[in-house]
């Protein structure tokens, strides 16, 4: 699938081959092909249009060196622009406070609970004492799932199976953390299959009550354009700090990374690439640009 995208771009750039100069005519033709390819890679239409408009302008302003073809130059410019659009540098999570509190939000099935376990393992490796908190009051199975993951990664999981109030559970968990020398608290919240008012209210209330130093929004990269809409809805409501893009081991091209960043203007901080507890990577914009371009 990545080859497909790359082939398409190659085809587009071929229109320039053999021509030593970038002109308005040949760059416009190529930009159109790049735009199509980006849209095929799940990049939102508006974003793809704005990127290719930028690329056109930049390309026209650049001299083609003898050592590179106009096609190569356009690939390079496209790569640079995609990287810039995704924030340029990798972004760390903020671990402030004692304990630092990280709130995890997202739709059901996005990979929230799995990511919570992975993040706990990741932070534990930095020699910090972590506490996982199960705050899904609707699905007892989600609580059990987190317990299993906690056991796997050797991190304690705080639960209150009979309490149906997420705000209370999170506050109690933070108190428990203080008493038990836990330095980082990761709170896994309840998700729904679609965005609904009650879920949003609940997460907003939890966030207000506990004032986390980091709120991460988890989204399934395979959901394509929907990923952008979901990100926007969550961001409008809870103003998160960063995004976690999951299931990048699947056959998605990752264009959602560009659209989400452009639409909500929040950095992507982690990518999840599998069900195992070590399948977590810090997000590098440059690597993602290469992946999208194939
Ligand atoms: P939650 O409802 O948001 O808590 O989602 P879960 O963490 O339960 O994940 C939903 C399903 O997706 C589970 O079967 C996970 O094993 C799976 N999953 C989560 N993250 C990834 C990932 O990065 N790659 C793959 N292939 N599967 C994942």
Secondary structure layout plus pairing:
Elements: H1 2-14, H2 24-40, H3 45-60, H4 70-85, E1 100-106, H5 112-124, E2 130-135, H6 140-153, E3 156-158, H7 166-179, E4 184-189, H8 197-210, E5 214-220, H9 225-238, E6 242-246, H10 256-264, E7 268-272, E8 280-282, H11 285-293
Parallel strand pairs: 1-4, 1-5, 2-3, 2-4, 5-6, 6-7
Antiparallel strand pairs: 7-8
Can you give a write-up of this model?
The protein has an eight-stranded mixed sheet with strand order 3-2-4-1-5-6-7-8, sandwiched between helices. It has 294 residues and is α/β, with parallel strands linked by helices. Helices cover 51% and strands 14% of the residues. Strand 2 (130-135), helix 6 and strand 3 form a beta-alpha-beta unit. Residues 1-5 have low confidence and may be disordered.
Total beta-strand segments: 8
Helix content: 40-55%
Q: Output the helix-strand order.
A: HHHHEHEHEHEHEHEHEEH
Amount of beta strand? 5-15%
The secondary-structure class comes to: alpha/beta
- Which compounds are bound in this model? guanosine-5'-diphosphate
Strand order of the largest sheet: 3-2-4-1-5-6-7-8
Radius of gyration: 22 Å
Shape: elongated
**Helical segment count:** 11
Low-pLDDT parts are: 1-5
| Mean residue pLDDT | 88
| N- and C-termini, Cα separation | 8 Å
EC number: 3.6.5.4
GO molecular function: 7S RNA binding; GTP binding; GTPase activity
Subcellular location: Cytoplasm
Domain SRP54-type proteins GTP-binding: 267-280
